[in-house]
Amino acid sequence: MGSIDKYIFRTTLSSFALVLVSLTGVIWITQALRGIDLMTSQGQTILTFLGVTSLAIPVLVLIIAPIALMIAVSHTLTKLATDSEIIVMNAAGLSPLRLFLPFLYATIVVSVLVAFIGSYLAPDGMRRLKRWDAEITADVLSNILQPGRFAQLDQNLTIRIRERQPGGLLVGIFVDDRRDPKERVTIIADHGTVLKNNDGSFLILEDGNLQRFEVGKTEPAMVAFGRYAFDMSKFSNRGKDVTYGIRERYLWELMAPPADDPVYQQMPRQFSAELHDRFLAPLYPLAFAIVTFAFLGSPRTTRQSRNFSMGASIAAVFGLRMAGFALSVMAAKTPFAALFQYLMLAAAIGLSFWIIASSVVVEPPAALMEAINRSNARILRWARLGRRPVTA
């Protein structure tokens, strides 16, 4: 690439990265606030909270990246037009098609990124999120033991905690164990934590006492302890199998699913629709970039307004994305909907390429502009009449 191409390429990708990080961060925060109960009601740490919620970021990037690229292309073209650089490039013999070349390089980078995220990174994050969520919600120690409630874990086993504190610390623990018909064990501890290892799950109690009532004895045996491990492995269902949905499948699993896959046997069309979505995802950055350039890439003077072109490009991109979402939903029931989506993107890319190659300037019809100008003049006239002082 030449110096001009490197300048445009660098400006576009830097703008894309800034917009992508900003939009993803804002949306991620709104989504992460829904999982704040991991730290409050379930006693998870801040690292667990951040780890679980950040696994959804690749899915957000997959949707936001084409839109961020469109904004980056619009920003770069507006910057070039404001500084009259497009006019100078055109006067030097640089055609709009040649000017589009560095934008195409940046688009290829974004498309490769989207293809990688869609084929591997996003489903891998969804898999990890599902396994982590299943481990948290299936674990009695994290899910059922709620502060201030008596949890009946078994027919003759009751546990209560007074409160949870940051770091997974349990305060005010009461255990009533009557599973052995020959004795009854009551444990009261000041605080405790949950320990999980290869041997199982244990409730580590600290600074408490244990009372054992044996059958045939009138007085209980009392033991004060500094540290006591209460086995909870029976109630920690960590080995539960997790069934992955369609969105958690890698690209190669969608292309050749096992014949005995129960999910594939129940929803074969959904597999096909998801596979087409993965194939179409890298095409949307290309479509958005070339459509935006077709509206904004033509050389204009600083006196020519670009508002119509900007609004038309946003409307075109919005229409493409909404139509794509609708066709993706329809593809699960109608196989031809995926074909229509391919044809729609091909038509948008082909028409935009023809506009760029032919150096066509997309402008609103003259009659429409005259009507808008007359309407604006009429509004200004009424506003002036409204401000005119009333004479006595």
Give the SSE layout:
Blueprint: H1 3-32, H2 37-40, H3 46-54, H4 57-82, H5 85-91, H6 96-138, H7 140-143, E1 150-154, E2 157-165, E3 169-177, E4 183-197, E5 200-214, E6 221-231, H8 251-255, H9 262-266, H10 268-280, H11 283-296, H12 307-331, H13 336-357, H14 366-387
Antiparallel strand pairs: 1-2, 2-3, 3-4, 4-5, 5-6
Helix pairs in contact: 1-4, 1-6, 4-6, 4-11, 6-11, 11-12, 11-13, 12-13
Q: What does this protein structure show overall?
A:
This protein has helices at 3-32, 37-40, 46-54, 57-82, 85-91, 96-138, 140-143, 251-255, 262-266, 268-280, 283-296, 307-331, 336-357, 366-387, and strands at residues 150-154, 157-165, 169-177, 183-197, 200-214, 221-231. The chain has 392 residues and is α+β, with helices and mostly antiparallel strands. It folds into two domains: 3-137 and 244-380, no CATH class; 145-235, no CATH class. It has a six-stranded antiparallel sheet, with no helix packed on it. α11 packs parallel to α13. The model has no long low-confidence stretch (mean pLDDT 80).
Number of strands: 6
- The domain tally reads 2
- H/E series: HHHHHHHEEEEEEHHHHHHH
Helix fraction?
Answer: 55-70%
Q: Mind telling me the C-alpha Rg?
A: 32 Å
Fraction of residues in β-strands: 15-25%
Give the overall shape, derived from the CA principal axes.
Answer: elongated
- Briefly note the structural class of the backbone: alpha+beta
The protein's oligomeric status is single chain
Instruction: Write out the strand line-up for the largest beta sheet, numbering strands in chain order.
Output: 1-2-3-4-5-6
